[in-house]
Specification:
By secondary structure, the chain is α/β, with parallel strands linked by helices. It contains nine helices and eight strands. The chain has helices at about 15-25, 30-40, 45-55, 60-75, 90-100, 115-125, 165-180, 180-190, 200-215; strands at about 5, 25-30, 80-85, 110-115, 125-130, 135-140, 160, 195. The strands form two sheets. It has a five-stranded parallel beta sheet, sandwiched between helices. A three-stranded antiparallel beta sheet has the order 6-5-7. A hairpin with a 5-residue loop joins strand 5 and strand 6 (about 135-140). Helix 1 packs across helix 9 (about 200-215), helix 2 (about 30-40) packs across helix 3 and helix 4 (about 60-75) packs parallel to helix 5 (about 90-100). The longest helix has 16 residues, at about 200-215. The chain starts with a strand and ends with a helix. The relative contact order is 0.19. The model has no long low-confidence stretch (mean pLDDT about 95). Bound molecules: BIS(adenosine)-5'-pentaphosphate.
């Protein structure tokens, strides 16, 4: 099964993509994680995108499509995938359809997270993540079990994302409304959109997703 998670910054895409990938044994691709890894490594691509990401703008379609083509072509055909952070524009979605058609596969469902804007801001303001393994926490809603230590890898390198500063969050939310929200209609027209109530706690959101996926597989 091939799944896309769609939603505003802080909607819980990354959190749920990791859980669902594990439960359904899917390969997870997160373009945000990939780009942050490029920035951390100081690669040419990382240097090119760092300022764009820190200002809340989108990286160009050309770069992003290149990144995703590489990932998807390396995919073992027997394995489904979950895409977190891609597509983010209509041009990216159209290109993704083409890439998948060439591989004789398709997007089976698009999970669109519906979350109040006030909640998004609160989530981003309290987010911390492990710089070593990428695990995400929230200071209030899902803190690490032992203060300051990553539950997954034991690192003490828990930090805030540069783009979670309040002024950048506003820019990211505006960019989402302008460039990414139109994808809801795009996938609605393709009849594979599933709306998920992202305002619930993490376990309830996962439950709702699994139930709805089961229905399309029935
Ligand atoms: P990216 O990393 O994809 O950022 P984003 O889409 O803005 O999404 P976030 O990672 O901020 O939020 P999320 O929905 O994953 O929420 P999370 O699960 O972490 O992209 C970053 C940048 O890279 C972009 O701005 C752009 O510049 C560039 N980029 C990436 N892809 C691109 C593309 N395709 N085209 C162009 N540019 C691209 O949750 C947030 C917080 O809430 C966490 O603390 C979490 O613990 C908590 N939380 C999650 N779920 C719940 C819940 N149900 N209840 C309570 N708390 C919760």
């Amino acid at each position: 099964m091939n799944i896309i998670v769609l939603g505003a910054p802080g909607a819980g895409k990354g959190t749920q993509a990791s859980i669902i990938a594990q439960k359904l044994e899917l390969k997870k691709f997160s373009t945000g994680d990939m780009l942050r890894a490029e920035v951390a490594s100081g690669s040419e691509l990382g240097n090119k995108v760092q300022n764009i990401m820190n200002s809340g703008e989108l990286v160009s379609d050309e770069i992003m499509i290149g990144v995703i083509v590489e990932q998807i072509s390396s995919l073992d055909d027997s394995k489904g995938f979950i895409l977190d952070g891609f597509p983010r524009t209509i041009a990216q979605a159209v290109n993704l359809d083409k890439i998948l058609e060439e591989k004789e596969c398709k997007v089976d469902c698009v999970l669109a997270f519906d979350v109040d804007f006030d909640v998004l801001v609160e989530r981003l303001a309290g987010r911390i993540y492990c710089k070593d393994c990428g695990t995400t926490f929230h200071e209030v809603f899902s803190p690490p079990k032992q203060g300051g230590i990553c539950d997954n890898c034991g690192s003490v390198n828990l930090v805030r994302r540069d783009d979670d500063k309040r002024e950048v969050v506003t820019a990211r939310l505006n960019k989402y409304l302008e460039m990414t929200e139109p994808l809801i209609n795009y996938y609605q027209d393709k009849k594979n959109l599933i709306i998920v109530n992202g305002d619930n706690d993490v376990a309830k959101v996962t439950q709702e997703i699994l139930k709805k996926i089961e229905l399309i597989n029935a």
